[in-house]
Amino acid sequence: MWSSRSHGARIAILSVLATVVILPLVIFVLGPNMPPGRHTSVAKGQQVDNTVLLVVMTPVTSFILVYLGYAIAAFRVRKGDDDPRDGAPIRGHMPSQVAWLTVTTILVLFLAVFGSAELLANNGSGGGQGPKPLAKPSGPVLPVQVIGQQWEFTYRYPTFGGVETAQLVLPVNQEIEFHVTSIDVIHSFWAYELGVKADANPGVDNIAYVKPSVLGTFQIRCAELCGLWHGYMFDTGKVVTASQFAGWIKQQRTFFAPIDKYLPAYSTTYSPDPSFRAG
Ligand SMILES: [Cu+2]
After folding, report:
1. N or C: which end of the chain has fewer CB atoms below 10 A?
2. Quick one: pLDDT at residue 197?
């Protein structure tokens, strides 16, 4: 029979070995495939954060699985043992208690500090920061308003006459300042590949930043149950070149010009008209 000390040492060695084998796979194979990809500044930041969480999880999970496997293999009832008994109860074990408290405290504090630093470094990491963002990008921004409503999102471009469009088109390599709001119930603007997810609440101007760096399409979904057709509240957005964007926005302004007079003036929030849609 092994002493409890050698059981502990074997579990520790096997846990370290498992970590050493799995960690490079996590960093170099799983990490680059973690959501939400690398299409924007904040998406890249989120992928790094997801990888760091996995790296922290790896030794913890390795230890738990090794411990489980070891316990099943080493402490099972063997054939011929017709009088299996538990070991003596353990009351207080200073090394385990100190190790448990030290490791969990370090992990929790590290993640709290790392998470806060990442939020600031990535301009809020694609989440809404409310009307007064703490973390702002330094360069010029293109404001784009996202208006949630049952059951679609529409978009207004305040620097282009406040034109309201049904499609979200963004220029590449340009810092975007989303102003997310709603004119009826609560919604959530989730643009997966952009790494943006911000609450769309009535009466609230929720600001989120993102800088798209890859041309192409991205998915948009409402991520807050908002009524009967919530499941159909999805759309496809586009990231295009600066000149394509200039052409597109010009075309939208011409196209919507005849109905401009029916639009309320651009505002950070809108109060629904009780006699009108969504009132
Ligand atoms: Cu919705």
Report:
1. N
2. 97
